[in-house]
Amino acid sequence: MAKSRVRSEHLRQLVAVAGVLVAVVVAGALLAPPLFLVGEALVQGGHAELLRGVGFARYLHRSVLLAGLLALCLGKKSRGPQRRVGLRGGAARLLRGFALGSAGVAAMALGLVAVGRLGAPHWPAADGAALLRLGAIAWAVAAVEEVLFRGALHAALRRALGHRAALALGSLLFALLHFVRADPHILPAAAVDYASGLRLLPSLCAPLARLGDVVGTLVTLVAMGGVLGDLVERSGSLLGGIGLHAGWVFALLALPQFCAAGPACIWAGGDLRDGLAAWLLMALSSCLGRRLMG
Fold this sequence. Notes:
It is built from nine helices and no strands. Helix 2 (56-79) packs across helix 4 (128-161), helix 3 (90-114) packs parallel to helix 8 (239-254) and helix 3 packs antiparallel against helix 9. The protein is mainly alpha-helical.
């Protein structure tokens, strides 16, 4: 009887998590049109050139993430301040994670140069400001995804399923998110209205039907989620994971400015995350992350 009650409670919590995820997606779909219209108005007024050419599909994707952050803030307020995972370690943990992530990708790149997948390194034509922008993007992406996935989602799944199942399911959801994309030009700006987000939701999931073409990248992203989740679980802090994630993203974004692409091979396909090199990077990052930040 006791086991039955425990299973029922776990199922109830899992259903609650699924309900919150659906609510976040719907809220993001409703939030995207007004944000897009405000952004377009700012562009037309000459106040936001960075937003020029940004399609509605990208607004929709970012709005879902924003809705997730809002849900996290509201949920934290309703539950009170007690949280198991925090931000312990300060800047030193962030920087160790960033150094480990960027150095790992740099080492992977040198290996890919040796096998001919990448051309010989050269000093980039981009100025320092361009690299700073890439760094800002990397830190923003890492912070948002780590807070949402390793901070909020993992904690909720852990309560419902336990650590191992939560780590596996959370890592899979994290990987699948990277394939939830719509054609940025699928909806002309003039056709956007307040229901456009809801109508576009099915097209966001269309790439999931082609996962068979990107199995290698999917495996890497699942492993990435596992490495980050395990690091947060062991350290009790999000900061190391944020730094490690930011280092990976920054190095991958900056790499094309240093090395020209070569022909795909077993070590790395058309996407550098697809292949043996990326899998080895994840394994190495797991071992070093446990030693240096776990």
